[in-house]
Design brief:
about 290 residues; alpha/beta; 12 helices; 8 strands
Length: about 290
């Protein structure tokens, strides 16, 4: 199961390119993605105004429903009360998501007990299941495998986007012993092939804008236990992912999508800046090496 956290394309006037967003959503779903994430970090959600966020949500949700695909919506996760209000408003939206992706509170570092209390409040307020976005190198808040199991036991928590920046003993512990029905989704693109081999059923991967079918095939092969011959593919996809993240996300991905003619501009909004041309060239070379 590969979910693609969609970029937000901009036109030459700096507005959201709605047609390009819709076309990109159709493309990745046709190529094998199981669903889409709207308003994730890759979407530059923090740089969109409320009207733009509503427009992106409506477009991505509608395309998911047309394809019978999973629709996940990113929500603010820093302040508990604000996140509760945001979740409470979901039922009145044009398309109710299948799940929401909520980041562990950042900067405040509330401790693991505080994280549990935060997500208990969100799960009680939300009309749809939660996927916890665990990304400690952004949030400053590490979580043990034990705490993630406690999160999994909360009613309404369906999974975790696991993006710890590597694979360590906690990773192996969690994947070797986790509650049934709790989805551990790879969130670090470079390490995703390794997490598939350890038992992760899929991932939320920005890199899967590109070579979508190959990412989906790799995850499916690992999930069915038929990974023969896929080691080389896993290494090449990991190398592609590394190239796509050599400048801040989603700058390189947007540049490559633009080079392929899939979005009208490679533009990003401040504080992001365009990536160095050599980085984009390297990413295009890595993409061509994926069979």
């Amino acid at each position: 199961m590969i979910l693609v956290p969609l970029v937000t394309p901009f036109d030459t006037q700096g507005r959201v390119a709605v047609g390009a967003l819709e076309g990109l959503a159709h493309e990745v779903l046709r190529d094998g993605a199981a669903g889409l994430v709207a308003l994730g970090t890759t979407a530059e959600a923090a740089a969109l105004d409320p009207g733009e966020r509503a427009e992106v949500t409506a477009v991505v949700g509608r395309v998911c429903r047309e394809h019978g695909a999973r629709f996940v919506l990113g929500v603010a996760g820093g302040a508990t009360a604000a996140a509760v209000r945001e979740l409470g408003a979901l039922a009145g939206g044009p398309v109710v998501p299948d799940a929401v992706l909520a980041t562990v509170p950042s900067f405040s570092r509330p401790g693991e007990a505080g994280v549990l209390a935060h997500f208990a409040a969100l799960a009680a307020a939300g009309p749809v299941p939660l996927i916890v976005y665990h990304v400690p190198y952004r949030t400053g808040q590490p979580l043990t495998a034990r705490t993630l199991r406690e999160l999994a036991a909360l009613p309404g928590v369906a999974g975790v986007k696991y993006a710890t920046g590597g694979i360590d003993a906690e990773t192996v512990d969690l994947l070797g012993d986790h509650p049934d029905g709790f989805e551990i989704l790879a969130g670090d693109d470079v390490f995703a092939p390794a997490l598939f081999a350890l038992g992760a059923p899929g991932g939320i991967l920005a890199s899967a804008h590109l070579a979508t079918a190959r990412w989906a095939g790799l995850a499916e092969a690992a999930a069915t236990g038929d990974a023969k011959g896929d080691t080389a593919l896993g290494h090449r996809l990991a190398a592609l992912a590394a190239a796509l993240f050599r400048a801040p996300n989603p700058t390189v991905i947007k540049a490559v999508l633009h080079a392929e003619g899939r979005i009208p501009t490679p533009d990003v909004r401040l504080p992001l800046l365009p990536p160095p041309p050599a980085v984009v060239d390297d990413a295009l070379t890595r993409l061509r090496l994926v069979p």
